[in-house]
Amino acid sequence: MNLRGLVLSGGGMFGAYQAGAWRALRKQFSPDLLVGSSIGAVNAFAIASGMPPDELAGWWMGNEMESMATLKLSMNEPGGLCSPARLEDGLRRLVRCCRPKKLLGIVMVELPSLIPRLICSRTVTVRHLLASCAVPFLFPPVRIGGSIMCDGSYMQSPPYWVAQKMGASRIASVELMPNRGAQPEEVTAFRPHGSLGGLREMLVWNRERVTAALERGESETAAALATTV
């Protein structure tokens, strides 16, 4: 197979950068399959469903994302400091209105083995997306079948191996966090030029910061593409 894959890493609210990058990237790169972990799984789900780039950017800046990303401390959530209710409600609405048209791979990490697990399907569920976004100690892990799952970026980011396993021979990757492993030759990586912020900026939604990340993602990716042509 000679498939093209788009890999989107985790990184919380920095995921707005990926939405901006997609605005530039889609003009030159049409993926056959998409892979995502954590917030990258949410962006990958939207892109695989055919959501237009401007609509994805608007979703990031809108009230829906603000509500999803609002952290609510809870003392009643085993394994997490925050209730996942708002995140789950937002993901449910996203899944209700979007259906992936392209092959989609979502990465989760199984507990307690810490083994990465892959759901590869056009019928990804809310539970899969919620599990991939379940940052350890922030949100409780998610039970899927007989397994307990957490954030797909916990052990490895970005998940190049998933795109390769799904048959991609050419991979574009938009990475929000430092890469902890080797980059295969078939991967072209797009990364922010400099930091997008600290822990607070990564966890807390802010319209001005989201707008800035969207603009940076689009302009920096467009500039990188110009040098690779």
Structure description:
- The protein has 229 residues and is of the alpha/beta class.
- Helix content is 39%, strand content 19%.
- It has helices at 15-25, 39-48, 53-61, 63-69, 85-97, 126-132, 160-165, 199-203, 207-228, and strands spanning 3-8, 33-37, 103-111, 115-120, 142-144, 147-150, 168-174, 187-190.
- Strands 1, 2, 3, 4, 5, 6, 7 and 8 form an eight-stranded mixed β-sheet that branches.
- Strand 1, helix 1 and strand 2 form a beta-alpha-beta unit.
- Helix 1 (15-25) packs antiparallel against helix 3 (53-61) and helix 5 (85-97) packs across helix 6.
- The longest helix is centred in the last third of the chain and has 22 residues, at 207-228.
- The chain is globular, with a radius of gyration of 16 Å.
Radius of gyration: 16 Å
Number of helices: 9
* Portion in beta strands: 15-25%
Poorly predicted tracts of residues: none
How confident is the prediction overall: mean pLDDT?
Answer: 89
Give a quick precis of the structure.
The chain is of the alpha/beta class and 229 residues long. It has nine helices and eight strands.
List the SSEs and their pairings.
Elements: E1 3-8, H1 15-25, E2 33-37, H2 39-48, H3 53-61, H4 63-69, H5 85-97, E3 103-111, E4 115-120, H6 126-132, E5 142-144, E6 147-150, H7 160-165, E7 168-174, E8 187-190, H8 199-203, H9 207-228
Parallel strand pairs: 1-2, 1-7, 2-3, 7-8
Antiparallel strand pairs: 3-4, 3-6, 5-6
Helix pairs in contact: 1-3, 1-9, 4-5, 5-6
